[in-house]
Design a protein that fits this description.
D-Maltodextrin-Binding Protein, domain 2; 3 strands; 44% helix
Length: 155
């Protein structure tokens, strides 16, 4: 009895996996739009075009890059959030669209946690803090001290 129960559960699980695999094999059946929230010709745009061309070749359907600039990436994010959740409108975006924007804007017109599902991390970009070499600053504590000693003078 116990073996029959496990066998039945296994068969149901296998059937569910096979149905999902068959459904996934049909994607895409038409053009996919990769929305880039930054200007054409920049590094993110070039990367999106490169990836789109590879996906064109591999999946046999066009992957079109569409730049929707403005609002610190908010314009594109809102447009993608309101698109049907069918996998045919995807956003190729910097992480700040889903992280930093939530702290910068009081009334963000999209919910980063509910409106999007990250599917791949493609690039890691380091950020560097630099100052004019003429400043007597060699560390972040130096910079903080220097700025506090000159309120309103440092930008």
């Amino acid at each position: 009895m116990r073996i029959a129960k496990h066998l039945a559960i296994s068969i149901v699980g296998l059937a569910c996996m096979l149905t999902t695999a068959v459904r996934a094999q049909d994607y895409p059946t038409r053009q996919v739009t990769l929305v880039v929230p930054l200007g054409a010709g920049g590094p993110m745009d070039i990367l999106a075009h490169t990836l789109g061309a590879k996906l064109d070749d591999r999946l046999g359907k066009p992957f079109v890059v569409e730049n929707r600039t403005g609002g610190g990436t908010v314009t594109a994010a809102v447009w993608v959030a309101k698109a049907p959740a069918d996998g045919y409108t995807d956003m190729f975006t910097p992480s700040g669209t889903l992280t930093t924007n939530a702290t910068l804007y009081k009334n963000l017109p999209y919910n980063p946690a509910a409106d999007f599902v990250p599917i791949a991390l493609l690039v890691k970009v380091p950020f560097v803090l630099v100052v004019d070499p003429s400043l007597p600053v060699r560390s972040i504590p130096d910079l903080i001290k220097y700025a506090k000693e000159r309120p309103g003078k440092i930008s």
